[in-house]
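Ticket #4471: structure export looks truncated?
Reporter: QA, pipeline team
Priority: medium

Steps to reproduce: submit the single chain below to the structure queue and open the exported record.
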Amino acid sequence: MMFRVAQSSDVEWDSALDNTTVWHSGNDRVGTWSPHNYSGWAHLKSLDGWDHLRVTDALGNPITQVLTKQKGPLGIAYCPGGFANNQAVDSNAFTKFLQATLDRRVVYVRVHCLTPTKYGDTGMHSAGWRSVGTRLGARTSLKLRLDTTFEERTEGLSFNWRRNLRRAEKHENNVTVDTAPSAHSIAALHQELEQLKGRHVNTWESSQPHLERLIEGFGSRLVVVRCVSDQGMLRAVRGAIITGGCAYDILAATSAEGRKHYSSHLTLWTLINELAARGVVRYDLGGVDIEQNRGVYDFKHGTGAMEIVYGGEFDSANPAVLRNVLSSLSTRLR
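Actual output as written to the record:
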């Protein structure tokens, strides 16, 4: 396969992604492009020092968006959204293409493979990619079907989830689809959540500048639901990005008060039904770690979502002998 660097504008690139055929397996609509391949994500990550380039095949069809960093002779390339239609491109050819494009003596490439393993071998190993030693995120996620009726979605809720939803409806939780999301208020809520978890380093979700980029970059693709008390205090927020017929979880935070009032249940339930009303057929609720964070897993699984395991993360380097060393520095890719 021949690779080219796309010269298209943000609008043209995003439109090309929208028009790419969705990957199917039998009658199952597996997914569309990850939000990480859209221009909005590239501009958000530029705040963390990442440049980007977009790769197409010889005919101009999108293959992936690559985030890049360069230091001296080293070029780092990261493809968090995987390849077009989850295909496995040749590792050696792709790595050398990026090395030439970045004009570096050494290049390290990491790719997040979003092919569900239930469909068999992802093809990454046979294409020359190696599984990483240290992962940046979870391979396991939960997907919820939304091409169902409201009654079917309700019946799919677990007993505890349905009970907590009824509790939420009695606790002065005012939930609306937020047509003008406030980066400031969402950041403040995430900062409170980070403090509740005892974290000393905040994530991008708690950064107002990053959230401003997210809101601006994804526009109407971003659907945010907010929950406030009768006094107008923000209790919970949940957001997802729509690409084609799928939606991907991107924002989730609940205040200490919101936890007491089951606000997260009503907020997520409202978002689920809003996405369904917009024609979304699959909702990826985001990575889960059953062993380290069972509570989050149970909360998402209680919606009726089914567990799905993706191919995960793979990498390559040229010279190949440096792959293990560069892979050990992978946490710097965040």
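Status: closed, not a bug. The export was complete when the record was re-opened. Leaving a note from the reviewer for reference: The chain has two domains: 4-141+310-333, 148-280.
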